[in-house]
Amino acid sequence: MKANAIRIHEHGGPEVMRWEEVEVPPAGPGEVTIRNHACGLNFIDTYQRSGLYPLTMPSGLGLEAAGMVEAVGPGVTEFKPGDRVAYCSAPNGAYATIRNYPAERLVKLPDTVDFETAAGMMLQGMTVEFLLRRTYPVKAGDFVLFHAAAGGVGTIAMQWLASLGAVTIGTAGSPEKCAIAKSLGATHVINYRSEDWVKRVKEITDGKGVHVVYDGVGKDTFLPSLDCLRMRGMMVTFGNASGPAPEIQPLILSQKGSLFLTRPTLFHYIASRSDLELSAGALFDVVNRGLVKIQIGHRYPLKDAAEAHRDLQARKTTGATILIP
């Protein structure tokens, strides 16, 4: 079967991405053939393309998509042709019109969730799920600092945190992005480009600091974020939008208040089939109850994925960005 896909033959900038015709073989044992209707764009895609997270060449790109099952391979009993499905983990290759994928990593979509919404929420929404429910379980009244509050992960997190009763401090890089975070439930917003955000966090918390920082930005925000935590607070660094967080000596955690530090990744929180279903089920639940509305800010043709990567890295996007095959 012929299909088209974005492929890379070397690591580098967006210019290394090529729109190629590929041959999709019949689904093998444990696999399904999926026709993607919408693909998700995530920062991890740029890390893999650039070589920060190296791939074996040549390689497809993309971890997230939603579509319809076209065929199933030997041994697959949970899915059948015509099923609406979504996925958000390896193997790479979601930037494709048609592809084969392991059935054990797929989830069925509820009838209430369309393909574009699913492609814009699976990876980012399940990231929010494990951050807020399982890395540091947020309770009503907790003070939470969340960086990049108007981004794809941030727009979901602002709503989910509001539903939990947290006091959320969201940072963003423009008045417009601050307004988005505020409209989605942030208790306080800080424009990090024009305000001393560490000072503002201390003012908001009466000098005590926050219980937890969720930081997907990395290099630019990591060290100052440690100064925003209260004694025995938790620093959760989960992304590298500005580059990897700097190395530190463990003693600094003691000096700043016996802090906890973790560097989690979604894929360790959905490694088992049961955890995958738990995370997806929790996400579908808050979306179906209207507690979280997925904000799709941008759509690009899949063949223009390089342009989407450039805009994402230039911080020109808000909410979720999806690619349409």
Mind explaining what this structure looks like?
This protein is of the alpha/beta class and 325 residues long. It folds into two domains: 2-121 and 294-324, Medium-chain alcohol dehydrogenases, catalytic domain (Quinone Oxidoreductase, Chain A, domain 1), CATH 3.90.180.10; 135-264, NAD(P)-binding Rossmann-like Domain (Rossmann fold). The chain is 30% helix and 27% strand. It contains eleven helices and 16 strands. It has helices spanning 43-50, 115-119, 122-135, 152-164, 175-183, 197-204, 222-226, 251-255, 266-269, 273-288, 305-313; strands at residues 2-8, 17-23, 31-40, 59-60, 65-72, 84-87, 98-102, 107-108, 143-146, 167-172, 188-191, 210-215, 229-237, 260-262, 296-301, 320-324. Strands 3, 5, 6, 7, 8, 15 and 16 form a seven-stranded mixed beta sheet that branches. A six-stranded parallel beta sheet has the order 11-10-9-12-13-14, sandwiched between helices. Strand 1 (2-8) and strand 2 form a beta hairpin. Helix 3 (122-135) crosses helix 4.
